[in-house]
Design a protein that fits this description.
Length: 516
């Protein structure tokens, strides 16, 4: 039988309950909350799906997928998933791992063709595929939006890697969530499969799992089945994509995404092929990075986040959030529960609903023998947080301890910000009272806005422009984050562009300064 016929049969005969009067009592409250939010105009639409023990208990759409045309949302409407794209891309990656084409513990450079990682610190050989997948390779914060009504589009993946794939921390040392890493993984899939990423994911993941409403970006001819993304002010956003599609570019319906989750809790529906072994599924859910050091309650594996809830259950999940997108895929593997909630506007409702539903469906206490580790036993990776400054010029007044820290940095520092279009001269003047002046390129010296020193890390905003083509496309401030390492100030200059109500960019560049 033709594959498309199999998909249709699976769609028809999969057991579901969608009528309100057929819903289990514990789901009725969630349904009422959704209706209330839609009626109050707090979001355009939301689609939800809940499965347990291999059966879909509830799937339904609410509100308008497209306000302009009046098109209603339903369980088959395709929503932009944002970062739920990561476990989907990781599923494709693991297919190549099981075929022997990729080794998770080999350097990612071996699978990138001519594109290579640049080790500003550490060793590029230690930036393994696994570390890229669990966000501990040392790659930076990165996101870059490209709107259909703008003149420029995404560069090639090889060019993005050449511009931004710098290691800012020693591989394995700390967790830094990086869309860039998953843009590199989609390029690994392309290089090692011999197929374009979009084609490989369709042929090897979506079609074998019967997911005919899941795709990278929006396939031609399916525009009318897709939810329009809306900004917080209610405006429809023009279509946008990225230079890291493996991190952010998947669209899917609630019906298809819950069935994707059912495959990953080992309750595949009829007609789904075993594209991965159960061992590979377990490997994806095994946390190898600790996202909250010292607490032992949350981690990250190959595409999946893990956490332990208050009843002792291990949750495996991913969320997604960007302009016009709020999504969650939440699973409890030990209880074979999957919950999906997808919205096409800014809202906290999907996450709140998913966790409330899981709490309602779970027995009171977890069986410890059935639970996976939520985080590594050892603190293999600390969290690296970016704390942005503001627009003002407030300088933090140091106490005696902080004055001693500032004394260590006091003096004149000269160096550069490394960009793909050449080095940009940078000079800092720091005094023992915590006052910092900065001079970028040939501009006049000015205070480093919101300058602060915490735990040996100097942070603040440069109110200027870096001058690269990428940063000029969506201008914004430059956020500095520098550490004293072997007598030098080293770290990042992140261009945070502002393009509200559209999404801005975060472009990270290497900085190194020497004391004069």
């Amino acid at each position: 039988m033709h594959a498309s016929r199999l998909c249709v049969l699976a769609l028809i005969f999969l057991p579901t309950l969608t009528r309100a009067d057929e819903l289990p009592a514990e789901l009725q409250d969630s349904r009422a909350k959704i209706i209330k939010q839609i009626e109050e105009g707090n979001l355009p639409s939301l689609a939800i799906a809940v499965a347990r023990d291999g059966k879909i208990l509830w799937e339904e759409g609410f509100g308008l997928a497209d306000r302009e045309s009046g098109r209603k949302a339903n369980e088959h409407t395709m929503y932009s998933l944002a970062s739920i794209s990561k476990p989907i891309t990781a599923t494709g990656l693991m297919i190549l791992v099981e075929r022997g084409k990729v080794d998770l513990d080999r350097p990612i450079d071996e699978y990138l063709g001519g594109a290579k990682v640049t080790a500003r610190v550490g060793n590029a050989a230690d930036a393994t595929v696994r570390r890229v997948a669990d966000h501990t390779a040392g790659l930076p914060l990165h996101y870059q939006f490209f709107y259909v009504d703008e003149p420029s589009g995404p560069p090639s993946r090889a060019e993005t890697i050449a511009r931004y794939a710098n290691l800012y921390t020693v591989p394995g040392d700390r967790y830094q969530y990086s869309n860039l890493g998953y843009g590199m993984l989609d390029y690994v899939i392309e290089q090692q499969s011999g197929k374009p990423y979009t084609q490989f994911m369709h042929d090897e993941v979506f079609a074998p799992l019967g997911l005919d409403h899941m795709a990278i970006d929006i396939p031609k001819g399916m525009e009318a089945q897709t939810a329009t993304r809306y900004a917080g002010n209610g405006d429809a956003l023009p279509f946008y994509t990225f230079d890291h599609p493996g991190a952010s570019a998947v669209f899917a319906s609630a019906h298809d995404l819950v069935r994707f989750g059912m495959f990953h809790v080992k309750t595949p529906v009829d007609g789904q092929s075993a594209i991965l072994s159960e061992k590979a599924i377990d490997e994806m859910q095994r946390a190898t990075a600790e996202t909250e050091p010292g607490r032992g309650r949350s981690g990250y594996g190959v595409g999946w986040g893990t956490a332990r809830n208050r009843r002792g259950y291990t949750l495996v999940s991913h969320t997604g959030g960007m302009p016009g997108v709020a999504t969650i895929l939440l699973m409890v593997p030990s209880e074979k529960i999957v919950v999906v909630a997808l919205a096409n506007g800014p809202t906290n409702l999907p996450g709140n609903l998913a966790h409330a539903i899981v709490d309602q469906l779970l027995p009171e206490e977890a069986d410890p023998a059935k639970q996976k580790a939520a985080a590594p036993e050892a603190n293999v990776a600390a969290v690296e947080k970016v704390e942005g400054g503001g627009d003002g010029e407030a300088q933090e007044k140091p106490d005696d301890k902080k004055r001693a820290e500032w004394m260590d940095l006091a003096g004149e520092w000269k160096g550069e910000i490394a960009t793909y279009q050449g080095a940009k001269p940078l000079r800092l003047t720091i005094d023992a009272e915590g006052k910092v002046e900065v001079q970028l390129n040939d501009a006049a010296a000015a205070p480093l806005s919101e300058a602060n020193l915490r735990r040996g890390v100097l942070r603040g905003d440069i109110l200027g422009e870096l001058g690269t083509d990428d940063s000029r496309r969506l201008p914004g401030n430059i956020f500095l984050e520098l550490r004293l390492v072997e007598g030098k100030l080293q770290g990042k200059a992140i261009v945070f562009s502002k393009n509200r109500p559209r999404g801005g960019n975060a472009l990270t560049h290497w900085v190194e300064l020497s004391r004069e």
